[in-house]
């Protein structure tokens, strides 16, 4: 199986403020990371806050700067070096790779109707020829994301978290992308809704032949939906493996610590968490 | 005798859209040394309930006259908390007999006052310690929750500590006056998993050491399974099910509890399908009549009495109750 | 059975009400919240009335406010209140008394005005009078007048100009200067604040420094310095524009900071990134996302800054550096009240003062109400 | 930083002064003309050379600013008097009046604003709101006017000026000070009136903002209540932004000063400025006054920044760097 996205030695460094004296310190948000995302796979990227997982996901989409290293995207039709796209290529890449956000409240423009939000990518990129065609596409994808078509006239403030996330997904998928980065797509949702969105993502993957990079801090969620998992800590990938293998036999001490930290649902299994010490 | 007894607590808020019911007929008891978990999703009214125990809800809150919150302290008359109208009366209880820790430790420390000053202030308010003793005691408490260099940290500000450290300091402050009841309002939600695990371990140790009653509020059933003795499950301001934590998690009686457990991804069985609870949580403006959950219950029979009547708390097993009509309790 | 249909119709009404809420745009929601504030609504009504009075001043006022419309026989005349009844009986049509002006040995050869209660002058509607232009249309019909002589609801000034007419026209001028000033400062603020907020970084730093420097200068003394050099030969229109520009300059730094802050906040919102990932260019993002996201706040800011602009104009005119007779603004009218003589003898000079205060207060209250209504957290405040 | 702002401001002021048509020389000689002495174009040029007006713009600005920073403002254009001696007392007196007004405004606004924000009494809140709006809407020159007129009627003394006639030119003495104080309250009151209204708004808004924060709830949950809670928590944290607004409030008072001065015929800086401008077109003098006013505001801002760093550890940290 060929790789849809190949990340090689990718680094993203941010300057940390300005200093009058000496060299400005940098934040190594992502440091020499390599990651393969096979076509049709559901790759999980796990890490705690500040681990650089969001930056990595955005760098792949060219929404965060690439300091060094390369990101390659090859879906059979096109073969892009993402760091070196020209304007036309970048525009094309935007139709092929999309992002789903964590916060369903901040990701939707409050002054646009749901129809306008979903239609925006089509209109901006002029992918449709007429308003009728746009509406047709919007209705199609909205139905796939199980949105009530009568609700397209409404504004985002009328929706609950789960519904908003479905709108967000519909917007990301309306251009027919091949690759989707889902950044903590269920973290802000209630448990009863979370499963619904996860199932939706899974079924959309099958139906639309998508490849996912699923970013999350929650190992148990990742374990359920992903077939590959990479564990990130302080800008570095500590361990990556096929999901079952990784959970059955974690190699890195940090992965073990993460696993032990998940509170078990069994009241009789009250073990203490393993504390990870990076210096050990 | 129970330490805290909440009976028929009903809380409404006055808003632009009218009177909104946040909590309805909630009753529970906490015994000394017992950890009661209160689980619920967003909008279930769990935080509002917690704040009601200390009358911390805002000025637009309306407590139903039938609501009773009674605190039984050793050697004193039972205190009817909701009957206190003056801040001064509440002041004795808040931070003294009952302490509270919040979800966001950053936001709950005053940003421009050192942690130490805030701790000493609380101690001097509730005990007759001298300033020096209060400071020594605070350093001791910080040490006990696992903060290194407590004598240095005590003179720092909240923004100078890391997230986990702040939550530890918050716990140290809450426990410094040896309260009889600790209310922990989502104390681990804002933390990373590894830090969350450490804080949970710390709280388990402290329960063993101090023996106070705890009301532990969270949306995470796993956290409850790890910490609580008994659990109450809330949905849209009502208690759906309550009982010993093992009974409720292993043999849930209420469809909502069952749904919650089925929706949760479990690490030990990766092939188990995730079953969501259908539909969305209704907005507080559209509280369903009858059983508030019937609109999302997958097994709901249209036209049944759950659409009109509020089901009573029926006994499932000793100590285990669910908001179902008796004929539906298996 | 009818019970059932009642319930059904009630449910459908509920449903429609909810649907209206869900499909309500931000503007409709703000309006709905604004309507609930009684003080702001009262202020808005007063404001609307004042604005209409200003706009239709030429029609509503019986006379030309300049020296053209003066009443030579009634200088420093007291207000004439129309009445229906007097000792001679009542009439359906309101009337005022005529006045006589005479000078004789009895009055020490000074002009003395006396009221002749036998001389009734009836109020007429839609009378022909001085020519005026309203929206470019010539007219000479005025809302009311009297059958003979003049009527002065608010009295006259020392040259016999009708204070009522002057007040209405002054409201118009003050509003016009204010609007022009707000527009000028708004354009400046949008450009300067917009550049700073959208680009951020060092550009923002430099612009902020300059804005802050501008904010430090006490602007009124500075512009007094400039206004003092306005040649007396300037026409009243030129003067009017110059004052508007000055006032626009007074106000821009505050607005520019607001624009910048809004932009800085909104720029980092996820929905902006979402639009960028759709391949939207800066133009599209500014037009479709950023501008709509804060127009309501900017409008609120504009309304709030309005009273200060009116105040500035008044202050400048008041010290004689702004607009001058024959142009009529509230500031010019207030200037007339400066002498003790006025307080002692001609109290009606103060009537425009109340209009001025009402105008400014109405603006302040409306602005405040709008601010509360547009506050996204307002509804959640406990 | 403060010096930089001042430089920038001086450039703006100087440029605007330059933009005004006519140079100092032209104007002085034109003034002389009216006094009967005949002046020719050559005279003007000679005068311009003498005053250094033929030098490039930036050089003149540099000289002006250099002198200004040393407190030397040169001679007045028309009056031909040293500006320093012309201003001296007058500037200090007006500064004193403004600062007193500012001080009094906050002395009233802080407690009242805090009480207004923490009280849930709707009548009290609404009436305070109304009063402070009235303060905003009623320009203080109107207020000054009213008081003056009333006092003229009631006491037969218009209360104008800062000194009674017999003291106007007298050297400073105890009696003169008392006389001064007896009259200075009026401008202070008038200037303080709208300043208080503004400050009240600021304080109330800031307090409402702070009170809704979680740390206040947390402090209540620890048993604090009433005044102790109010002063130690929200009030203390709202102090920073209040201190921050001092400079701009002073600016506002300066803005109103000349107008009030005009009505009350005070002969201090504001009215002097007005006179300098309106009658004699004296840009040297006007520039000096505006420079001094701005320098005062910059200085106040500088001190409030220091004060802020003392009050708020977060600011201290960002000023001194992360290691402090």
Automatic annotation (TrEMBL), chain A:
Coiled coil segments of this chain: none
Alphabetized UniProt keyword annotations: ATP-binding, Nucleotide-binding, Transport
GO biological process: peptide transport; transmembrane transport
SMART domains found in the cross-reference section: AAA (SM00382)
Domain of life where this protein originates: Bacteria
Magnesium listed as a keyword: no
Family indicated by similarity: Belongs to the ABC transporter superfamily.
Protein name (Swiss-Prot/TrEMBL): Oligopeptide transport ATP-binding protein OppF
Source species: Candidatus Rhodobacter oscarellae
From TrEMBL, chain B:
InterPro entries from the UniProt entry: AAA+_ATPase (IPR003593), ABC_Ni/Peptide_Import (IPR050388), ABC_transporter-like_ATP-bd (IPR003439), ABC_transporter-like_CS (IPR017871), Oligopep_ABC_C (IPR013563), P-loop_NTPase (IPR027417)
Signal peptide start-end: none
One GO location term (cellular component): plasma membrane
UniProt-listed GO biological process terms: peptide transport; transmembrane transport
Organism: Candidatus Rhodobacter oscarellae
UniProt keywords, alphabetically: ATP-binding, Cell membrane, Membrane, Nucleotide-binding, Transport
Record domain ABC transporter: where: 4-261
CDD domains xrefs: ABC_NikE_OppD_transporters
MF terms in GO: ATP binding; ATP hydrolysis activity
Entry's localization field: Cell inner membrane
Xref: SUPFAM superfamilies: P-loop containing nucleoside triphosphate hydrolases
Membrane topology value: Peripheral membrane protein
Record protein name field: Oligopeptide transport ATP-binding protein OppD
Xref: Pfam families: ABC_tran, oligo_HPY
UniProtKB/TrEMBL annotation, chain C:
Domain ABC transmembrane type-1 as annotated: residue spans: 171-367
Source organism, top-level taxon: Bacteria
Transmembrane segments: 39-60, 175-201, 213-234, 240-259, 297-323, 346-366
Pfam family, one: BPD_transp_1
Protein name: Oligopeptide transport system permease protein OppC
CC annotations in GO: plasma membrane
Xref: CDD domains: TM_PBP2
Compartments in which it is found: Cell membrane
Family: Belongs to the binding-protein-dependent transport system permease family.
TrEMBL record, chain D:
Alphabetical UniProt keywords: Cell membrane, Membrane, Transmembrane, Transmembrane helix, Transport
Topology within the bilayer: Multi-pass membrane protein
Residues annotated as transmembrane: 91-118, 130-155, 184-203, 259-279, 285-311
Subcellular location: Cell membrane
Keyword ATP-binding: no
SUPFAM superfamilies hit by this protein: MetI-like
UniProt main location, coarse: membrane
Recorded family membership: Belongs to the binding-protein-dependent transport system permease family.
Species whose genome carries this gene: Candidatus Rhodobacter oscarellae
A biological-process GO annotation: transmembrane transport
Gene3D superfamilies: MetI-like
Superkingdom assignment: Bacteria
Record-annotated ABC transmembrane type-1 domain positions: 91-304
Recorded GO CC terms: plasma membrane
The protein, known as: Dipeptide transport system permease protein DppB
């Amino acid at each position: 199986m060929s790789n849809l996205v190949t990340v090689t030695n990718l680094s993203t460094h941010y300057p940390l403020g300005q200093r009058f004296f000496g060299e400005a310190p940098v934040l190594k948000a992502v440091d020499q990371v390599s990651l393969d995302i096979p076509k049709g796979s559901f790759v999980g990227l796990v890490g705690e806050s500040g681990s650089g997982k969001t930056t990595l996901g955005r760098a792949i989409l060219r929404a965060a700067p690439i300091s060094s290293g390369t990101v390659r995207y090859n879906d059979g039709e096109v073969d892009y070096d993402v760091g070196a796209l020209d304007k036309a290529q970048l525009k094309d890449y935007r139709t092929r790779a999309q992002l789903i956000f964590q916060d369903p409240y901040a990701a939707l423009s409050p002054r646009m109707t749901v129809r306008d939000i979903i239609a925006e990518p089509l209109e901006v990129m002029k992918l449709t020829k007429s308003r009728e065609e746009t509406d047709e596409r919007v209705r199609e994808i909205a139905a796939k994301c199980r949105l009530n078509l009568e609700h397209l006239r409404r504004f985002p403030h009328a929706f609950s978290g789960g519904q908003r996330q479905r709108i967000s997904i519909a917007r990301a998928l309306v251009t027919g992308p091949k690759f989707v980065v889902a950044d903590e797509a269920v973290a802000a949702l209630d448990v009863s809704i979370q499963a619904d969105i996860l199932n939706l993502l899974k079924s959309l993957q099958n139906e639309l032949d998508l490849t996912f990079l699923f970013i999350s801090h929650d190992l148990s969620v990742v374990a359920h939906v992903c077939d590959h998992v990479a564990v990130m800590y302080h800008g570095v990938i500590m361990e990556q493996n096929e999901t079952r293998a990784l959970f059955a036999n974690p190699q890195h001490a940090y992965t073990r610590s993460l696993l032990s930290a998940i509170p078990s649902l069994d009241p009789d299994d009250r073990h203490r968490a393993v504390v990870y010490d990076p210096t050990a | 005798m129970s330490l805290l007894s909440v009976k028929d607590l009903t809380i409404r808020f006055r808003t632009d859209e009218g009177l909104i019911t946040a909590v309805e007929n909630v009753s529970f008891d906490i015994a000394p040394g017992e950890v009661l978990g209160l689980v619920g999703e967003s909008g279930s009214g769990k935080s509002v309930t917690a704040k009601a125990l200390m009358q911390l809800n805002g000025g637009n809150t309306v407590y139903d006259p039938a609501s009773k919150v009674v605190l039984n302290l050793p050697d004193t008359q039972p205190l009817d908390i909701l009957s206190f109208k003056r801040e001064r009366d509440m002041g004795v209880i808040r931070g003294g007999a009952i302490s509270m820790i919040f979800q966001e430790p950053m936001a709950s420390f005053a940003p421009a006052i050192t942690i130490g000053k805030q701790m000493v202030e609380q101690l001097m308010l509730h005990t007759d310690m001298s300033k020096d003793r209060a400071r020594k005691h605070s350093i001791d408490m910080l040490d006990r929750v696992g903060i290194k260099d407590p004598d240095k940290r005590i003179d720092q500000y909240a923004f100078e500590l890391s997230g986990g450290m702040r939550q530890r300091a918050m716990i140290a402050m809450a426990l410094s006056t040896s309260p009889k009841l600790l209310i922990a309002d989502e104390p681990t939600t804002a933390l990373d998993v590894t830090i969350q695990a450490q804080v949970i371990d710390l709280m388990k140790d402290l329960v063993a050491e101090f023996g106070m009653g705890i009301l532990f509020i969270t949306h995470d059933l796993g956290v409850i399974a790890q910490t609580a003795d008994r659990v109450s499950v809330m949905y849209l301001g009502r208690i759906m099910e309550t009982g010993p934590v093992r009974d409720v998690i292993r043999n849930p009686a209420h469809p909502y509890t069952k749904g919650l457990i089925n929706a949760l991804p479990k690490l030990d069985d990766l092939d188990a399908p995730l079953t969501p609870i259908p539909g969305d949580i209704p907005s507080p403006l559209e509280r369903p009549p009858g059983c508030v959950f019937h609109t999302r219950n997958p097994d709901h029979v249209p036209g049944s009495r759950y659409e009109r009547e509020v089901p009573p708390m029926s006994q499932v097993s000793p100590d285990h109750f669910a908001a179902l009509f008796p004929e539906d309790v298996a | 059975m009818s019970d059932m249909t009642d319930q059904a119709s009630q449910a459908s009404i509920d449903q429609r009400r909810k649907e209206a809420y869900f499909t309500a745009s931000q503007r409709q929601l703000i309006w709905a919240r604004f309507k609930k504030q009684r003080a702001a609504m009262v202020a808005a009504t007063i404001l609307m009335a004042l604005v209409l009075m200003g706009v239709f001043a030429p029609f509503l006022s019986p006379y030309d406010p300049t020296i053209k419309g003066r009443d030579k026989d009634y200088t420093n005349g007291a207000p004439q209140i129309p009445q229906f009844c007097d000792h001679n009986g009542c009439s359906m049509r309101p009337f005022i008394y005529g006045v006589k002006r005479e000078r004789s040995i009895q009055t020490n050869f000074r002009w003395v005005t006396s009221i002749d209660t036998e001389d009734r002058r009836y109020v007429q509607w839609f009378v022909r009078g001085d020519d005026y232009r309203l929206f470019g249309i010539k007219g000479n019909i005025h809302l009311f007048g009297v059958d003979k002589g003049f009527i002065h609801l608010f009295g006259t000034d020392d040259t016999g100009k009708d204070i009522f007419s002057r007040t209405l026209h002054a409201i118009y001028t003050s509003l016009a200067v204010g609007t022009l000033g707000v527009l000028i400062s708004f354009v400046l603020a949008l450009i300067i604040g917009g550049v700073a907020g959208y680009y951020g970084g060092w550009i923002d730093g430099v612009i902020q420094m300059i804005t802050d420097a501008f904010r430090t200068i006490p602007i009124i003394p500075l512009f007094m310095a400039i206004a003092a050099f306005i040649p007396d030969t300037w026409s009243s229109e030129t003067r009017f524009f110059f004052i508007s520009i000055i006032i626009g300059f007074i106000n821009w730094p505050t607005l520019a900071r607001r624009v910048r802050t809004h932009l800085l906040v909104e720029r980092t919102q996820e929905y902006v990134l979402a639009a960028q990932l759709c391949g939207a260019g800066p133009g599209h993002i500014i037009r479709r996302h950023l501008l709509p996201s804060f127009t309501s706040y900017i409008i609120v800011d504009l309304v709030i800054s309005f009273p200060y602009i009116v105040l500035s104009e008044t202050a400048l005119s008041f010290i004689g550096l702004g607009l001058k007779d024959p142009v009529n603004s509230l500031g010019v009218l207030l200037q007339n009240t400066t002498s003790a003589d006025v307080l002692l003898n001609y109290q009606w000079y103060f009537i425009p003062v109340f209009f001025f205060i009402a105008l400014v207060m109405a603006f302040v209250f409306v602005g405040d109400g709008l601010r509360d209504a547009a506050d996204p957290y307002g509804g959640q405040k406990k | 930083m403060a010096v930089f702002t001042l430089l920038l401001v001086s450039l703006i002021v100087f440029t605007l002064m330059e933009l005004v048509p006519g140079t100092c020389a032209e104007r002085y000689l034109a003034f002389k003309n009216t006094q009967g002495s005949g002046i020719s174009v050559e005279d003007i040029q000679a005068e311009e050379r003498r005053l250094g007006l033929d030098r490039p713009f930036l050089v003149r600005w540099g000289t002006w600013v250099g002198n200004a920073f040393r407190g030397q403002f040169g001679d007045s254009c028309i009056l031909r008097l040293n500006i320093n001696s012309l201003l001296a007392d007058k500037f200090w007196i007006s500064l004193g009046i403004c600062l007193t007004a500012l001080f009094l405004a906050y002395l009233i606004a802080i407690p009242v604003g805090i009480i207004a924000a923490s009280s849930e009494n709707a009548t009290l809140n609404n009436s305070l709101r109304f009063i402070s709006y009235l303060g905003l809407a009623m320009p203080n020159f109107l207020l000054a006017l009213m008081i003056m007129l009333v006092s003229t009627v009631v006491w037969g003394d218009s209360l104008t000026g800062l000194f009674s006639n017999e003291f106007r030119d007298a050297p400073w003495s105890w009696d003169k000070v008392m006389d001064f104080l007896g009259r200075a309250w009026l401008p202070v009151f008038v200037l303080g009136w709208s300043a208080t209204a503004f400050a009240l708004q600021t304080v109330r808004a800031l307090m409402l903002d702070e009170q809704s924060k979680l740390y206040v709830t947390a402090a209540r949950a620890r048993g604090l209540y009433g005044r102790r809670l109010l002063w130690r928590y929200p009030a203390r944290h709202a102090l920073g932004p209040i201190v921050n607004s001092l400079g701009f409030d002073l600016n506002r008072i300066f803005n109103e000063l000349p107008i009030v001065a005009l009505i009350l015929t005070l002969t201090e800086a504001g009215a002097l400025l007005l006179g300098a401008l309106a009658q004699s077109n004296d840009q040297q003098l006007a520039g000096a006054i505006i420079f001094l006013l701005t320098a005062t505001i910059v200085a106040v801002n500088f001190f409030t920044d220091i004060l802020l760093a003392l009050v708020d550890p977060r600011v201290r940290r960002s000023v001194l760097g992360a290691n402090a």
